[in-house]
Amino acid sequence: MSELNVKFGEKEISLPAPATAADAIKAFDRDALKRTLAARVNGAEVDLYSQINIGSGYAAIEPITLDSRDGLEIIRHSAAHLLAAAVLDLFPGTKLGIGPALMDDPRYGFFYDVIAPRQLTEADLPIIEKRMKAMAKQNLPYRRENVDKKRILEIFKERGEPLKCELIDEKVQEAASIYYIDNSPFIDFCLGPHVPHTGKLQAFKLLALSGAYWKGDAEREQMQRIYGIAFATQNELDAWIKQREEAEKRDHRKLGRELDLFSISDDYGQGLILWHPKGGIVRMEMERLLREELEKRGYSFVFTPHIAKRQLWSISGHEENYAESMYAPTSIEDEEYRLKPMNCPFHIGIYKSSPRSYR
Asked: From CA 303, how far away is CA 152, in angstroms rounded?
């Protein structure tokens, strides 16, 4: 019988081969396995029940636990797949886009882009979430298979998934992994890893629905993006929901409208403020306070234009380095101008306006 040499921290043991990451973790620490979602084998992330294949030498095993950032990412990515599975179950014929975890967005934790047979509405979200919870209770395993590119394309062509086929053509060289959830119509082309089964997903909520274009291209297919949030525990989810509710109460857009301070409209441009009389008073008082504090600290005040000849921004280097963040040039009497990205060229102009000595 062949053996597999495994390291867990400073400990080393040999296991009968073949063995999975779960086998190795269980052999070292049975309790640790209960908290583990996936693992790293010699630094590479793998599913918990994937066989360890390293050839010769030792396999260094590191659990990815529920309470880690990497564990949270796996939970959210797996929840995105569960969302897609529920949508496919409820709305047969749905076409799938992508469904990543979101780790740095304070509003959401994951999304999946879909083209459903009919337009989805906010009223559908509780129905989809209910189906997700029912599937979670069934402890359905996430299965992984490594398949060559030709076979993966055949699978998704047979399923009528043109967008997935496009991704496979672009991203797969020779072979890749596909995931499916038992007893569901869901299959996805994905690197993984995922939670071992849907029962690990107990704390999630669907939040919003929006429009999206395939690959962000307005000339391509229009899709619907379903957003959700997921955590390792219900306590974490409840705390996040409460924090979100409190933040919404203090949202400046909500307060501005309710207190008649200002208004915002897409008719004028995103984030452009229309100050109402009451808001004007607040703004002037804030500006007065700021001026007083600056004067106390020895600041002098200057005023400069909001626009200048394009050549100035070329000389200053702003156009070369920040062109993508600047507004497009505009032509005035056959001369090109640009809105200022910064004040420094104007302040240099003030400094140059009179002779100065280094003394």
From this structure: 63
pLDDT at 182 over 60: yes
Residues 63/28, Cβ–Cβ less than 8 Å:
no
By CB atoms closer than 10 A (0-12, 13-18, 19+), residue 210 is exposed
Give residue 29's pLDDT: 82
**3-state class (DSSP) for residue 340:** coil
Q: How far apart are CA 263 and CA 265, in angstroms?
A: 7
Domain 3-65 homologous superfamily, CATH: Beta-grasp domain (3.10.20.30)
Residues ≥6 apart with Cβ < 8 Å to 301 = 291, 294
Neighbours of 298 (CB within 10 A): 6
Contact 50, 59 (CB under 8 A): no
Mean of per-residue pLDDT scores for the chain: 92
pTM to 2 decimal places: 0.77
Q: How many other CB atoms sit within 10 Å of the CB of residue 64?
A: 22
Strands 110-115 and 203-213: unpaired
Tokens 């999630």 correspond to 204
Quickly name the fold that domain 70-247 has: Threonyl-tRNA Synthetase; Chain A, domain 2 (3.30.980)
The SS3 assignment for 270 reads coil
CA dihedral (190, 192, 197, 201) in degrees, to 10, reads: -100
The secondary structure of 134-203, three-state, reads HHHHCCCEEEEEEEEHHHHHHHHHHCCCHHHHHHHHHHCCCEEEEEEECCCCCEEECCCCCCCEHHHCCE
Instruction: Give the integer Cα–Cα distance in Å for 66 and 34.
Output: 9
Does residue 27 register a pLDDT over 90? Answer: no
CA atoms within 13 A on the CB side of 348: 8
The structural domains of the chain, with segments of one domain joined by +, span 3-65, 70-247, 251-301, 307-352
